[in-house]
Fold this protein.
Amino acid sequence: MTVIALVSSIIISIGSLAWGYSETGFDTFARWILVVGMVWLFTQWQGWDWFSSLVLFFVVLISAFGLWFGFNPGWMFSGAIFALFAWDMTDFRRRVRSMAVDDDSRGMERRHIARVSVLSLAGLFLATITMLVRVQFTFEWGALLVLVAVLGLSQLVSWFRRQSK
Amino acid sequence: MHRSIFLSTLVYALLLAGLITLRGELIALAIPFMLYLFFGFWNAPEALDLHITRSLSVDRTTPNSDVIINLTVTNRGADIEELFLDEKLSPRLTIRIGSPRHLLRLTRGSSFTFAYTVAGPRGTYAFNSIDVTAAESLGLIYREQSIVTSQKLFIFPEVKRLKYVSIRPRRTRVYAGTIPARTGGSGTEFFGVRDYQVGDSPRMINWRVSAHHPENLYSNEYQQERVADVGIVLDARVRANLFHADQSIFEHSVAATAALSDAFLSQGNRVGLLVYSAYLGWTIPGYGKIQRERIMQALTRAEVGVSSVFAGLEHLSPRMFPPESQIVLVSSLVHDDLNVLVQLRGRGYQVMVVSPDPVKFERGLLPPSSQVDLAARVVRMERDLLIRRLERAGIQVIEWDVSIPLDQAIGPILMRQRRLL
């Protein structure tokens, strides 16, 4: 479950950034972002956890540049938030590796992913407010927001249901 | 870098950049990170109040036997979202079943019990503490603690039971035992004939001798059997134990020492142990089960060592052993040991050498070739010469081919000596 969340968040983060840059004509730079994404996935496969911190710094930097140059803030926020999500998952995966076979790894994974999803959702919500203030709520951004909101809400509901049991 | 510090740095950098450039987007970009940090700090674990109990299925065992270790952790403090338990084990121990590391959620008042199975070679293993790390669910804030739970596991060398070890020191102790004391008295073995004394049982009268001397009666006298002082010396010098590719014959020497000390103590003797290594590890002589325990503990600690001071056996001081007592040296022998052993014999000690055969041992480790065969023959001749010289000096040498179990290889020889001497 953690691995799926990690890979998905890396793809969404890098995809959002690359899309945001290519949208404004920076195709070459977008390709380089995709290359970084590939390397990131490769390093996770190899278990080089330290690389996530490096990429998070890189993603925040290019997101900040994107916002500075006035690119679509939705993609930039999405890139940064999902990079944060992936960075968190990398460390969580490292911690889960030390669990014994008979430990409740599934339960811990479920709880952790639910919490981080809620945090990401809250982050996106704040970003959305910022975007609404700036009136740049594009269709693609809206679609992504709805998708993430549905996923996050479903996680939240299932988490509450398990808690109530 | 610590994760929370890294994230805080990012947040501060974004806030600073936003303030310098007066761009609200950069500050907005910092908000999700701030939220994440805030959540982490909000749920930071409180001071740990954990109670840990450990129990071992056995605390004294033999090499490579399974030992089950049970641990129960009880949380007397606040809820802990992520509790990482890590028991640091000696690298020499092998985990057979389970794991000494666990990551779990532990609510207030709840307990968690786990067990794992270890096995290992001879040695003393201390379980001094368990490292616990508590964190909130994001893993940003940690609290680490080492909880002391002192316990020890002794893995004693395997003791092969030797039925009887025949020794005959010149001097014995006053207590009754099984060692012939070279003095007449009550016993089982015939010692001599003496004049009849009032109180002698009619069964003791030697009628055949008395018939030759009609004026006197003569009684049979039997050899007294008493306990003796036995000093066992375990040779742990590197030069006498390490051979090709760091393979050591030392474990066999330890096994022989354990078996011999067990046999001597079972016979009621007073036994002391000297481990001759980089230092002199001396276990003062004693009797019975307590002494057996002391010797076994000394053997679990015994390691091969190198020292220029103790390179030879010159420091095998006669003052350590009672005069004219029995000394048993367990060693694969090196050439310059001859003089020391002969000197000990000259001082009146009864010296026995139990020698694991290093030639056969090392030859088994080397690839077969004509050069190896030739070298083995040369070394064998040198060793035979050394053993012959020792035997000529009155030292009893028992060679042990370590590929054969100790009780089968030298047990019958040790018993037979009683009749020969």
The longest strand of chain B covers residues 176-195. Chain B touches chain A at residues 1, 3, 6, 10, 14, 17, 21, 23-26, 28-29, 31-33, 35-36, 39, 82, 84, 86, 98-99, 101-105, 114, 137-139 (CB under 8 Å).
